[in-house]
Amino acid sequence: MDITDKQLVKSLKNYFGFDSFKGNQKIVIQNVLRGNDSFVLMPTGGGKSLCYQLPALIMGGTAIVISPLIALMKNQVDAMRSFSTDEGVAHFLNSSLTKNAIAKVKEDVLSRRTKLLYVAPESLTKEENIEFLKNVKISFYAVDEAHCISEWGHDFRPEYRRIRPIVNQIGNAPLIALTATATPKVQNDIQKNLDMEKAEVFKSSFRRANLYYQIRPKINATKEIIKFISANKGKSGIIYCLSRKKVEELAQTLVVNNIKALPYHAGMDATTRSRNQDMFLMEEADVIVATIAFGMGIDKPDVRFVIHYDIPKSLEGYYQETGRAGRDDGEGKCIAFYSYKDIQKLEKFMQGKPVAEQEIGKQLLLETVAYAESSVCRPKLLLNYFGEVMKENCGNCDNCLHPKDKFEGKDFIILALKTILGVQERFKPEHVANVLAGVATSAVKTYKHHHSEYFGAGDEKDSKFWNAVLRQTLVARLVFKDIENYGLLKLSDAGREYLKKPYSIMLTQDHDYDLAGDEETAGGGSGTGAVDEEIILILKDLRKKMARKLGLPPFVVFQDPSLDDMAIQYPVSIEEMQNIVGVGAGKAKKFGKEFIEIIKNYVEENEIIRPQDMVVKSVVNKSGVKVFIIQSIDRKIALTDIADAKKLEMMDLIDEIEAIVHSGTRLNIDYYLNEVMDEDKMEDIFEYFREAESESIQEALDELGEDEYSEENIRLVRIKFFSELGN
Predict the structure, then answer these.
(1) Would the pLDDT of 636 be above 70?
(2) For residues 261 and 264, what is the distance between their CA atoms, to the nearest angstrom?
(3) By the 8 A CB rule, do 166 and 123 touch?
(4) Which of 342, 84, 346, 97 is nearest to 221 (CA)?
(5) Residue 154's pLDDT band (boundaries 50, 70, 90)?
């Protein structure tokens, strides 16, 4: 249908209240109204939804919108109904509806009240829905989040690849495919699959100037996230994690640190998921911790930060997820925590998948690594990945604001380009880098490149360095990746010209984010911070005095690891003392007061900034095994039976009981000791520990005699000793 510009703007104002279109919206809408197929590439926040919503309202019939998520459909339908006085203007048809609700939807569609019908691809393929839609006057089909079609896309859905045959079955109508992320490879795959290679392509710039991009090393990530959110109080944000378990853990940790956070992942029931999403949209919660399932198409314009706790599996996914920040063109901070160990974990998850799928997945991961470790302007790298050239640096990312030293790259680039030609332009960057660095991997040997004149030609630098050079030649457009052949490097015309007439290009060294390990090995617990030797001496002296006064060995008051942790954490309250290694509530109350006083004075006198002032409160995690042991001992169940019930060796059970007692919980195991031990021997062991200078089992065995006393019995009596005198 033909419509003038004036009429189109009038419709926009009438239906949505806007006076003008954004970016490519107008020309896309005109193309849809003319009945042509359209392929729309528009960044998140660019206004993709309007490209099919407005034509659907103007045209006769019903537009079928194929959408991947129930939450997304609900969000879109609610938004459409808010613009119309007729509740029936938009509906969704999916597995969440009751039979009565489905009947109501179908009635509204057949009576032509409904202008937009949202369906999941799985619903579209059901025979009963196909038969129903054959009776509907369809204005056009819109395939939202079309990247789901491509096996190279970041959210592959097999049902999406069946859309074209189903559309042919229902009845042909124009097609509009929309996505916020598609590399040239993905775009090609989508168009082929939907049989719309002749479609008009509308590609908006992927540049979002208001977004700040930063990669941080994954060290104490949880603590860093809490510090960041606390400094941005009241602002909306999304945190992405790759596993459901981490989503739950992190959400709980944020809540105990006074942050209004909620979890969101596919393992939750639909009602809870929907409620949590609504609470986030209604600003009853500030932060959503989610897997990638959250956010697709969610229309919340004021998300101020997007944090990736885990680096994503692909740059497509990363770009789309970060695009949910600052959709109102206001502030948007995009922070990702990176450790190469996470990449190795993701590679392991791929094992067992078909080889071709592994190959694709690995290639996507390598692109992510390249982005994370690079010192080049981050938006420039992202845009390059999506086939767009950005000439100037953004001036608003960590690499631009804190640039690394640059060096003259001309000679390195020449050597890299010659090596690509030397291996006949048939290999990926990591292979070329290994040849240059002289690393004889199995692939290098298989292709006999260890005999090439270029093997080791740049061996004064390592493969990591050469990978950085190759990435920067890609950004400079001297090299390109052959998208039909899994990203093999080939020289562009500019690259061939460069070899004839080289010129100065300044390069930057990559980041190395793995120098300090990751969150699992850095921070938290004793031994990871620097122990304050001065306070250790003061605490040991206090322990000795207290032990003498109470007639106890010093180790019964507090063990050395507990003192070490006090010398790192500086606890100044009973609550903080309870969080010290090996100190539970009982021990903190019994012995903690004098230690707290002395630490408090020391901190004030020496003006110490305590880690505790920045502490992240942990979620209490009472092990089910420990609770079972405590309850069983209270019921006087034999320790051998407890061990059998939990499939533990006796020594493992004793380990667990010792940990419980050392944390300050009092356990009475007399009922068991009286059954298995002679009373005199029990008393001998007990009195030995009363006089001992150390809690060492070996020293006790040496003193008491290994022939007469077993390690198991000594440990059991030591538990009784600690429990009675220490707790």
Answers:
(1) yes
(2) 10
(3) no
(4) 342
(5) low
- d(CA 203, CA 721) in angstroms, rounded, equals 75
Question: Which of 98, 118, 99, 106 lies closest to 270, judged by CA?
Answer: 98
**Tell me, what's the pLDDT at 238?**
95
pLDDT at 727 over 90: no
Q: Which two tokens stand for residue 376?
A: 């080049």
The residue type of 373 is E
For tokens 């059901």, name the residue: 126
Q: Quick one: average pLDDT of 147-164?
A: 74
Whole-angstrom distance, CA of residue 316 vs CA of residue 549: 67
Cβ pair 181, 387 in contact under 8 A:
no
- What domains does the chain contain, in order, with CATH numbers? 5-203 (3.40.50.300), 211-344+362-386 (3.40.50.300), 410-504 (1.10.10.10), 533-614 (1.10.150.80), 624-726 (1.10.10.1390)
> What is the b/e burial string over 135-160, where b = at least 16 CB atoms within 10 angstroms of the residue's CB?
ebebbbbbbbbbbbbbebbbbebebb
CA distances from 419 to 366, 433, 532 (A): 20, 9, 54
| Cα-based torsion angle of the residue sequence 288, 291, 295, 297 in order, rounded to the nearest 10 degrees | -170
d(CA 535, CA 529): 14
Q: Which two tokens stand for residue 444?
A: 């290098």
Per-residue HEC secondary structure of 72-134 comes to: HHHHHHHHHHHCCCCHHHEEEECCCCCHHHHHHHHHHHHCCCCCEEEECHHHHCCHHHHHHHC
By residue count, the chain amounts to 727
Question: What angle in degrees, to the nearest 10, is found between the helix axes of 533-550 and 585-605?
Answer: 130
Q: Is the dihedral of CA 637, 641, 647, 650 positive or negative?
A: positive
Cα 516 from Cα 535, distance rounded (Å): 27
Q: In which element (H, E) is residue 129 found?
A: helix 127-133
Helix/strand/coil percent split, the chain, to 5: 50, 10, 40
For 78, the token pair is 């609610």
What is the pLDDT of the chain when averaged over all its residues? Answer: 86
pLDDT (0 to 100) of residue 518: 42
Residue 261 backbone dihedrals phi, psi, to 5 degrees: -125, 150
Whether 613 contacts 626, CB under 8 Å? no
Instruction: Encode 631-654 in three state secondary structure.
Output: HHHHCCCCHHHHHHHCCCCHHHHH
Residue closest to 382 by CA, chosen among 396, 367, 392, 395: 367
691: which residues sit within 8 A by CB, 6+ positions away?
553
pLDDT category of residue 127 using cuts at 50, 70 and 90: very high
The rounded percent of the chain whose pLDDT value lies above 70 is 92
Residue carrying the six token digits 């919503």: 53
- Phi, psi of 481, rounded to the nearest 5 degrees: -100, 130
Span 130-152, mean pLDDT? 89
Structure-token pair, residue 263? 């979890």
How far from the centroid of its chain's Cα atoms is residue 327's Cα? 21
The secondary element (H helix, E strand) that includes residue 216 is: strand 211-217
**pLDDT average, residue stretch 213-238:** 91
| Residues sharing a CB contact under 8 Å with residue 172, sequence separation 6 or more, in sequence order | none
